Amino acid sequence: MQNARMFFLPLLQRQINVPIMIRVARYLCMTSYHKRHIGRMMTYSVVKFLGKHCAKLQNNCSCLYSTSLFASDRDIDSTYFTFDHDLAKNLQDMEKLQHNLKLRGISFDIHQLKANYEELCSLDKKRSAIEQRRSEVAHHIAVIVKNQKESKTNMPGVAEKMKILKEEGKTLKEAHKVVQARLWEVEEKVIRSALSLPNEVHPDVPEDKEVIVEDYLADKRLRIVDKDHHVILEESNMVKISNVGSRAYYLRGRLAVLEQELIDRFTTELHRKGLTMILAPEMFKTALVEAGGLDVVDPSSAYRLKHKEGSSLSDWDQDHMFLRGASHLSFLAYYARMQISSDSLPVRNFTVGRNYRPANAVNKTLPGLFGALQSVRVCACTLEERMEECSTECDMMVQAIKEIYREFDLPFRIVSIPVPLLCAYEQKRLEVQIWVPTMQTYLKVGSVAAHGDFHSRRLMIRSARDRQDAVEPVHMVYSDVTDITTMLAVLLEHGRLDKYWRTM
């Protein structure tokens, strides 16, 4: 590895052509293997070294490590997924696409994307034509050589014909190199631009302000509270604050038991609604985080496990591991690269687990358990065959969640979130917001969101009737059914701890 740095780093600093260096590295590795039998470790270390430093020279390496969801054929790295961009359909209605971007406040040159995509299609056709002609020329040469061997004589005009075919072969080879190089360049622009496009906004989503869909027990909102839940917890000794920080805690005594009872209540109700509980992942690789719509280099989006030696937190690497816990990423990791029979759809699952959220501008200002960086979440996910079925599924999940919350006899409301507050991967989102007396406001405790095929096109989650049918991306509806930790704080502030302690 040290030899690789000594040899290649000066070349990188002088901006020597990176693809040429990669080919040289591979040749040296093969030569070393045959001469000194040092194995494949040198190949790995050299290529990794180049990959790391090439990522910093965008002009030479075309951002080799800028995304884990796409890898060009000329890259030294690879990806587990093939992104289904569906640009042929999306670029048909330019006005609709432009309106979607305008609603989200995104500046994007879709005309340049369309021009690049048309050029990509043209180059692909040209490459195919050249490859077909090269195959024909090679076949003609093979036939001539075979006939000469069989006849054992030099037929008149054969030498001239062979010369012409060989010259044409050389010309086609050079033309193929030029077209292929340009195709790779345009393909990278198109795919990376397509990956940055947001999901299509549902027509029912409000454009600027949130809309209250339903307000339950609004007349019973408490205006005066003796103590907030944080004071109650300190006096009752039901929470132990960890010595690692004021936001690290664990529950004790009756509150710890109540947490489990709330989990049992929600899981029992979801089972009754026909959902199946699964054990889903809580740690994820870069590809899953990126496909989930999160910024992999933003420390406030997900915890990244200790970075590799020689790299910083701002470096990008598709092998990094992230900790997010129970979230929509859990289901993406569970379903990634899965082909599901259409007869099995819809698939309705849920999971329960810890959710980990880094400190950000939102949760830093929330008091007590409301701003806890770790909480217990109950999450659900439904996979549908068609986009039209997502709206029906959203309505069904909202109704199911409302029925659960009504049993608590607490003021809550269902709110439709406006476009500017939607995540890039969401088509629409309905939030369950519960009244917090000490804050004199509503706080999110759950949500139901339609994600469509945004994730499935990136992670190859598909469905088909049988092996002969074409596979199609599935459509996803994700629900944060509840945040158990937030519910504990709400019950404390409403003075309902003893009541629910006995009846849960």
Give a short synopsis of this structure.
This protein is α+β, with helices and mostly antiparallel strands and 504 residues long.
Structure description:
By secondary structure, this protein is an alpha+beta fold. Helices cover 45% and strands 17% of the residues. The strands form 4 sheets. The chain has an 8-stranded mixed sheet. A hairpin with a 4-residue loop joins β12 and β13 (441-452). It is elongated, with a radius of gyration of 29 Å. 32% of the residues are buried.
Strand arrangement, major sheet: 1-11-12-13-16-10-9-4
Helix content class: 40-55%
Count of discrete alpha- or pi-helical segments spanning 4 or more residues: 16
Largest sheet: 8 strands, mixed
Report the structural category: alpha+beta
Shape: elongated
Cα-atom radius of gyration: 29 Å
Determine the mean pLDDT.
82
| Proportion of strand residues | 15-25%
Q: How many DSSP-defined strands?
A: 16
Distance between the termini: 61 Å
Question: pLDDT under 50 segments (min length 5)?
Answer: 11-20, 26-48, 50-65
Keywords:
504 residues; alpha+beta; 16 helices; 17% strand; elongated
Question: What's the helix and strand layout?
Answer:
Blueprint: H1 2-13, H2 18-36, H3 41-54, H4 58-61, H5 87-90, H6 94-103, H7 110-151, H8 158-195, E1 211-216, H9 229-236, E2 239-241, E3 249-251, H10 253-272, E4 276-277, E5 283-285, H11 286-291, E6 303-304, E7 321-323, H12 328-335, E8 339-341, E9 347-356, E10 374-384, H13 388-406, E11 412-416, E12 428-436, E13 441-452, H14 454-459, E14 462-464, E15 472-473, E16 475-483, H15 484-493, H16 497-503
Parallel strand pairs: 4-9, 8-14
Antiparallel strand pairs: 1-11, 2-3, 5-7, 6-7, 9-10, 10-16, 11-12, 12-13, 13-16, 14-15
Helix pairs in contact: 1-3, 2-3, 7-8, 10-15
